[in-house]
Amino acid sequence: MAVRPTRAALLTLAAAALAGAVALALRPGRVPVEVGTVARGPIRETVDGTGKTRVRERFVVSAPVSGHLERVALRPGDEAEAGAVVAVVTPAASAPLDARTRAELQARLRVARAAQEEVRAAADRAGVEAAQAGRDLARVRALASGGSASASSVETAESAAQAGAQEAGRAEHAVRRAAAEVEAARAALAGASARGGERVPLRAPASGRVLAVLRESEGPIAAGTPILEIGDCCALEVEVELLTTQAVRVSPGAPVEIVRWGGPGTLAGRVRRVEPAAFTKVSALGVEEQRVLAIVDPVGEGWKRLGDGFSLEARVVVAARDDALLVPASALFRKGDRWATFAVEGGRARLREVTIAEQGESHAAIASGLAEGDRVVLHPTDALAGGTRVRAR
Fold this sequence. Notes:
The chain is of the alpha+beta class. It has helices at 7-26, 99-145, 151-193, 244-247, and strands at 31-37, 39-55, 58-62, 67-69, 79-80, 85-91, 200-203, 208-213, 219-221, 226-231, 236-243, 255-259, 267-274, 279-282, 288-299, 311-328, 333-335, 338-345, 348-359, 363-368, 375-378, 390-392. The chain has 4 helices and 22 strands.
């Protein structure tokens, strides 16, 4: 005999079905999100700063004696050969030198000559060391081609050879500077000994280009007044302003990328040193910041388009790895004093705390908290929380 359901039972079933339908209708839908994947790849972490070029060795030609300056014919950008006459001063008539003053000028000339001999000897040593570094590099490359030397040995030898060449170049500039000091001391002695009307020629202490004409017009001039500046625009260096909190991570020899310099592509450089003293600078937001200069040497071609005082931006590489576990930087956010991200698991967002090893421009290297192949939410919003149902767009 069949048992027919009662009216009460049917009503209960209908109410339960209606409640389930309402709950299903009111259940929050899946939040649409952009999803990225954790993968392995190379990463470089940089610290960025603004900077400008400057001539490595700048020579200022000054009047050795008081007198009358003839009009300077040179203009900024003109070439000047070492020893060429760049200005002429006619000394004013003066009383004969007393013995003490003449002895002082003669002593100054002797000191300048002694310093010239010292820097010339240092330049000779630097040249010998640079040549030895070049021979060592050739030997290491030969060993590496036969498999007897590692790639790191070749890189070390290349850095040593480059540093030796740069040191030899700086030593040559020091030789020219010392020669200029000798010339200035000789001119001072000659000018002080000259009688009124005897022209004293001022010669270029080194070959280069005229950077600035500080005194162009003819007229009276006092001893020591700067007349023009000369420098070699092919021997540039870059001064880059860095925050001191970032500069502590920069080491000599670190590679540098030069961007936004006005030309196509990037230029290469290498950090020579970080200055020991910082300075205070007010940012565009009105905040006082402590900054320090990093001096960068050019590497490779492309620098000939730049001159003295050209602005640019620099990226100093402080860490680099060829095989790191990378997560898109847009997936990361701060949770207290830790970094976190939302991983997508089973259609839900799961909060994960992560540890960052290096921070690149578009990705970050993960030390812990994620695994290769994990999917993460990009640009997470406040609508997300641990356990929120999500769907990839």
